[in-house]
Design a protein that fits this description.
about 270 residues, mainly alpha, globular
């Protein structure tokens, strides 16, 4: 018995970083709810009737003007906002080792979204390019859900959600040309999950990311997307709804970046 205890202590000493990173304690109440919600969403994605890709593919965007030799310039160049927010976020992260799980994934996902969305909008009539657009979005979205779980449930829940939703989102984006259902579940089910998490109290030690702020910009982006032509007409052909959608979606990262602002240095003792 003594020997067994001694051995256990030795193992703990040998693997301190591992045991600190992964705690296998029994799930807390919120973790159980989260596991239940993820299980239901997975079942819906797998078992709900298949939706043909054409149900949600917007084959035509209203603003097709060329500028500086770039076709569809408004919808292409507005993606630079994703690059700017992603790079800004990664810079902030360097000074924040306490950042919630998923923050790095969100910012890398935004940079990938810039690349994928540029590729798509240069020639939106090529439907296979839509996959490139969605792959970046899937990574960014997984990062955001990871942050939400990390802020409201637990650090390990955040880490698990980042991995699960990245895999689910990439698979859903990949099969979306044949069956859109999993992608719709990732997008809307994921947002419903984020909304549910936003309505709960932050866990002790959370960084304090305004999840409501992120969701606000996300909903705004969806409204701009729906009003592509209406906004183009209303602004006298200055800007289209889809161009504004990219800007609003990029701004969704701002509440996260704001929470990662540099902390004031401790006053030096004199
Ligand atoms: Zn777009």
């Amino acid at each position: 018995m003594l020997r067994a205890n001694h051995h256990a202590r030795e193992t703990d000493a040998l693997l301190p970083s591992v045991s600190r990173r992964f705690s296998f304690a029994a799930p807390q109440v919120r973790e159980k709810y989260l596991i239940g919600a993820l299980f239901v969403l997975t079942l819906v994605a797998l078992l709900a009737p298949a939706l043909p890709a054409s149900t949600w593919h917007i084959p035509h965007f209203v603003d097709t003007r060329m500028w500086l030799g770039v076709p569809n310039a408004g919808d292409v160049l507005s993606n630079l906002a994703f690059l700017a927010m992603g790079a800004w976020g990664l810079l902030r992260l360097r000074a924040h080792p306490d950042a919630p799980a998923g923050a790095g994934c969100l910012f890398v996902g935004l940079i990938l979204t810039c690349i994928g969305s540029c590729v798509y909008h240069l020639d939106p009539e090529a439907p296979q390019r839509l996959v490139a657009d969605r792959l970046g979005m899937a990574v960014a979205f997984a990062g955001f859900l990871g942050i939400a779980a990390s802020e409201r449930v637990s650090v390990r829940a955040g880490q698990a959600v980042v991995v699960l939703v990245t895999v689910a989102g990439l698979l859903a984006a990949w099969v979306a040309y044949a069956n859109l259902t999993p992608w719709v579940v990732v997008q809307f089910g994921g947002m419903a999950l984020a909304l549910g998490l936003a309505m709960t109290r932050p866990r002790p030690g959370a960084l304090g990311v305004s999840l409501g702020g992120v969701i606000f910009f996300y909903v705004l982006a969806k409204l701009f997307e729906l009003g592509d032509a209406t906004i183009f007409e209303a602004t006298g052909h200055i800007v289209s709804g889809h161009t504004l959608k990219h800007l609003a979606a990029a701004l969704a990262a701002w509440p996260v970046i704001r929470a990662l602002r540099p902390t004031d240095p401790a006053p030096s003792p004199r």
